[in-house]
Amino acid sequence: MGQPPDITDILHQLLCEHPQGISEHALITRLQQPEYGVLSEKVNFSDSLSLFQAHFYLFNQLYQLRQQLRAEQLADLAISALSIRLLPYSQGKAGLTDTDSLADYYLDWNQFEKTGTDDVNALLNDFWLRMAGQISEQERTEALSVLELPGNATQAQIRRQYRILIHRHHPDKGGDAAITQQLNNAYRKLM
User: Fold this and answer.
1) By CB neighbour count within 10 A (0-12 exposed, 13-18 middle, 19+ buried), where does 44 fall?
2) Bridge partner residues of 77 (DSSP)
3) Cα separation of 126 and 43, whole Å?
4) What's the CA gap between 60 and 82, in Å, rounded?
5) 127, 156 in Cβ contact below 8 A?
6) How far are the Cα atoms of 15, 99, 149, 154, 188 from residue 159, in angstroms, in the given order?
7) Cβ-count burial of 82 within 10 angstroms (0-12 exposed, 13-18 middle, 19+ buried)?
8) Which of 97-111, 123-137, 151-165 is the most confident on average?
9) 164, 184, 185: which is closest to 173 by C-alpha?
10) Span 163-182, mean pLDDT?
11) CA distances, 17 to each of 83, 94, 139 (Å)
12) Paired strand residues for 87
């Protein structure tokens, strides 16, 4: 499909009309209106691939708009699914740059082109498992491995082993911070 049409001017106009912010859903709905000529086809919110593509296109354009606004020192842009909002420009400190992995992802149009229905469904399934407090079997196995436990470990065994290993590897006790972080992540997943 190649690069999408640039709608950053339209997005900027819509965001100026909503200084309190606007949700992604409301923004997609506005972009479907005939006066904008963008997303003229109805986005099928029940089709995961169609929804992903509309979402990705919108966020690609929002992150491009944010780059433009920052480069021109006009404004900044807070971007999330629940609220997209223009913010006052804030001068950054020289030499300090944050890596924004979400911006990197959405600005890479190859991510859009290589993501198919199976990929989107896997992402959604993983999301819902996490929302329900569940993890996949592979994640459980990996987390148990970090804690040096067998696959049939109980919650009590996980808790006890975590305490032993965190005591052994904690940086305050001469241990390694990276190992401590791995232990914390594994414990969080399992509990």
Assistant:
1) exposed
2) 86
3) 23
4) 16
5) no
6) 48, 34, 11, 9, 10
7) exposed
8) 151-165
9) 164
10) 86
11) 14, 32, 44
12) 76
Is 23 in a helix, a strand, or coil?
A: coil
Threshold 0.70, pTM exceeds: no
Residue 93 has pLDDT above 70, yes or no: no
Which tokens sit at 26? 């409301």
- The Cβ of residue 115 has, within 10 Å, a number of other Cβ atoms equal to 15
Coil/strand/helix, residue 177: helix
Q: Which two tokens stand for residue 136?
A: 């996949």
Residue 112: name the closest of 72, 163, 55 by CA: 55
Task: Provide the residue count of the chain.
Answer: 191
**For residues 147 and 164, what is the distance between their CA atoms, to the nearest angstrom?**
10
Measuring CA to CA, which residue among 2, 47, 51 is closest to residue 28?
Answer: 51
Name the token pair of 23: 């949700």
Q: Which residue(s) pair with 86 in the sheet? A: 77
1 vs 54, residue with greater confidence = 54
CATH 1.10.287.110 occupies which residues in the chain? 137-190
CATH architecture of 137-190: Orthogonal Bundle (1.10)
CB 23 within 8 A of CB 84: yes
